[in-house]
Amino acid sequence: MSTSRPSNEKSDAMVEHPHHAHHHKSNVDAGARAIANADAKLSNPFRGIPHDRLMADVEIFAQERGLTHLLPELKKGALVAQDSTCHDRLDIFTDEDKRILTEEVTHKWRQTSTLYYMVVMSSLAAAVQGMDEAVINGAQLIYPTQFGIGDSNSSRDSWLIGLINSAPYLCCATISCWMTYPLNHYLGRKKTIFVTCMISFLTCIWSGLTNTWWHLFIARFFLGFGIGPKSATVPVYAAECSPAPIRGALVMMWQMWTAFGIALGDLIDLVFYFIPDTPGVTGLNWRLMLGSAGVPGLIVCMQVLFAPESPRWLISKGCYEDAFNELCRLRFSRVQAARDLYYIHVLLEAENEMKKGRNRVVEMFTIPRNRHAALASWVVMFGQQFCGVNVIAYYSSNIFLASGFSNVSAMASTLGSGTLTWLFALPAVFTIDTYGRRNLLLFTFPCMAISLLITGFSFWSTSETGRVAGVSIGIYLFAIFYSPGEGPVPFTYSAEVFPLYIREIGMSFATATTWFWNFVLSITWPSLTLAFKQQGAFSWYAAWCCILWVLILLFVRETKGKTLEELDQVFAVPLGTHAAYGLRQIPYGFKKFVLFQNPVPEQLYQLESESDVSSTTDDEKARKEVKEELEKVNV
To answer: How does DSSP assign 298-360, residue by residue?
Structure first.
């Protein structure tokens, strides 16, 4: 068990009021200290446990869970869970054990076929998500006229088109995202993915069979029951099935393959545009556009039947034998499976202990460390929508059409935008951990603002060629700058900033935030362009990019490469202290990147090293300490 002094005590002493240090130590830090202790316990629950005690704990665990036939593997697994390098020193491990455990680090992408089957299924599920969002882009060039809402100068028609486009995200923000926990709790990850993909399939077919605008709105609203829970479940499922060395990269793939699905949806729009009507069927092309987006969802439904269930979910339900069998499918050796089984069990026990008697929703906003994380998560999630990206994802065909393109050229240009969004999302797997989350956002937001201004101001061109070229350049540049920054960062950032004991609630809050503002953006864009023209509408979101740059500078903290204990210190820094630090970074950045000088960077967080963190050698003493700290906060 390790404890660490929260850094807001240190920051107050150094930056604000030295004579108030004692006050902060005795008062303000109680909540942060409890969280630091909790996260320290959860980050390495085996720290400081003597060998004999660890083996005794494993024997008790095996007897209680009916796993005595796995006791040799469980003992090896517990030793590796405590010290990942112990297999090199202990004779209890066979040569085969040593080879597999070493290659787990040296060849991290060498994994079982079952794991890669799960990766393919998760990637296709992400593509389903992107297609569900994108196919409406091309279809809205056709169906509004058929439904009598195609007057581009009518305020009513503009609002109705926006309402139809935004219907799934209204459902996500108000209902379906909040169903994620009960669905996962009672059905498990596999069945939740099956149900949501089946809903996506059925509602896409339903959308293609509608004949009025309100019927299409209802069908797309129910599509939100497939989009919302799936967006939160699939990344969690991938993380829970994956080994630690590649877990982060696989979670990142959700955003990347969603971008691929958007590009694929744009391609489908272009292909089906040329399908003529048949006798008795009007608008066959747009009906096929909307309906075809459900086909990959049906494929995922068939795939998921043969995929492993999340071992963590099975353990949470007491199904230890089933969890071990699934881990054996996902790992090369039984020792790896036993290690992960016991590690997950101990983590769940510690998490449940943290949750007892606590109102986690209230504590997400009342404890400063949690509140700072929630604010930072809200900023990046809100920014993912109000940077204007889904204006392009949902309305780029209309935008290109307004600039002078034909219908076919507009959809072809939209395909180009979707393809760029996907291609430039690929390097994000590497850049996000190289340059950091905050730095990527601070660099890309001004570039996105400039791209939006280029797009909007191009509509003032009297030359059709110049107007078309300017709009295309602006939209394509926007896609290039969005993909490595505000594309992958928000979900990755939100998944890591919250303490483990409130992470599920924090992610529900984050996903509901992004879907709500997605709804606001998509419903308002048609009326915004009607009122302020393309120039004013794009300038509106360019201005928001500038505002968001300031919010990120002041309130978003860097999380790259930090442990759970270090994140507690980062987010314990007072809000005013961090905002002042952000303002001081402006002259630093000007000197470094404009004047090409070498100013000394300021170290705000003053993270404590592992050697500064005290640890106990008795597991029961550690548990007692955590419990006492939590009781202090409750009082």
So the answer is: HHHHHHHTTSPPPHHHHHHTT-HHHHHHHHHHHSSSHHHHHHHHHHHHHHHHHHHHHHTT--H
